[in-house]
Amino acid sequence: MNQPIELSLEQQFNIRSFETQVEKMSLEQARDFLVKLYQQMVMREATYKHLLKHHWGLEGDSWG
To answer: What is the pLDDT of residues 7-64, one digit of tens each?
Structure first.
């Protein structure tokens, strides 16, 4: 997996749209948004770990 992942045009557009939205935010709004975004990232990671543990049959192990 040494090759970088290329984004689709839709993903690139979504990133640009997100950038435009962030530029219009106040500093306080951006900070609040950043904290919420980080919370979502942590939840997504926990969900992926749970799904992988279930898929690989590692439910009883103390992995992550």
So the answer is: 999 999 999 999 999 999 999 999 999 999 999 999 999 999 999 998 888 876 555 5
Give the closest residue to 62 by CA, choosing from 42, 51, 53.
53
Structure tokens that stand for 22 in this block: 């962030």
The full DSSP string for 1-64 is --SPPPPPHHHHHHHHHHHHHHHTS-HHHHHHHHHHHHHHHHHHHHHHHHHHHHHHT-TTS---
State how far the Cα of 10 lies from the Cα of 5, in Å rounded to an integer. Answer: 14
